[in-house]
UniProtKB/TrEMBL annotation:
Superkingdom, natural source: Bacteria
Pfam families registered for this protein in UniProt: Cupin_2, HTH_3
Organism placement in taxonomy: Bacteria, Pseudomonadati, Pseudomonadota, Alphaproteobacteria, Hyphomicrobiales
Key word Ion transport present: no
Keywords assigned: DNA-binding
Cellular compartments per GO CC: cytosol
GO MF term (any one): DNA-binding transcription factor activity
Keyword Translocase: no
Protein name: Cupin domain-containing protein
SUPFAM superfamilies: lambda repressor-like DNA-binding domains, RmlC-like cupins
SMART domains listed in its UniProt record: HTH_XRE
InterPro entries to which the protein is assigned, alphabetical: Cro/C1-type_HTH, Cupin_2, Lambda_DNA-bd_dom_sf, RmlC-like_jellyroll, RmlC_Cupin_sf, TransReg_Diox_bact_type
Domain HTH cro/C1-type per the UniProt entry, residue ranges: 19-73
């Protein structure tokens, strides 16, 4: 929980204000956005008042109600470019804003860094890091995409529907993202993954 008012993170980013601006831009009431996103009406109100900071999963679900990516949410003025090569420092960080706002450290968390402008290519490529204990959450993810990836280092537990597998370096996955799924690092070493999703989810 965070106090009412502006969110005092290092970059001065106000998630509540940004969400309210977007909702008004799309001419939606809080209830209409909640219905579209499939979340409780009270959640939208709490976030807009900065009385509650959303998790990555809950913010993504809300943005799904207006077909907006997290990259567009956090960097609305980022221009689409024609770059072909991206250096590590040029990847777009999709998660650190939320973790800072929630007062959480990297321990037990997930880092998702995007290559370029996903929407313009209809393809999202992510460099992912899962610290020990990191978990996408007990609520299974579902979205209208297809996704795949390769584990580069560490181990990652993948649940897709009724299947649960532990992937090790070199192991890969590919599935229809409409099937409920979850990612967890249940081991004591960090895990690194390179993944792709089309159309973009985050």
């Amino acid at each position: 929980m965070v106090p009412h008012g502006d969110v005092p993170d290092g970059d001065g980013f106000d998630v509540g204000r940004r969400l309210r601006q977007i909702r008004i831009q799309f001419a939606l009431t809080q209830r209409e956005l909640a219905t579209r996103a499939g979340v409780a009406h009270g959640l939208i109100s709490m976030i807009e008042q900065n009385r509650s900071s959303p998790s990555v999963a809950s913010l993504r679900k809300i943005l799904g109600g207006i077909s907006m990516t997290m990259a567009d949410f956090f960097e609305p003025d980022r221009p689409q470019d024609t770059k072909v090569v991206f250096r590590p420092e040029e990847l777009i960080d999709l998660t650190s804003q939320l973790y800072r706002l929630n007062g959480e450290t990297k321990s037990g968390k997930i880092s998702l860094r995007q290559v370029g402008h996903a929407r313009s290519h209809n393809l999202q490529i992510l460099h992912e890091h899962y610290a020990p204990g990191a978990d996408t959450g007990p609520t299974m993810l579902e979205h209208d995409s297809h996704e795949g990836g390769v584990v580069i280092a560490g181990e990652l537990e993948l649940t897709v529907g009724e299947q649960v597998q532990v992937l090790k370096p070199g192991d890969a996955y590919l599935f229809d993202s409409r099937t409920p799924h979850r990612f967890r690092n249940v081991h004591d070493c960090p895990c690194e993954v390179v993944s792709a999703c089309s159309p973009p989810y985050l």
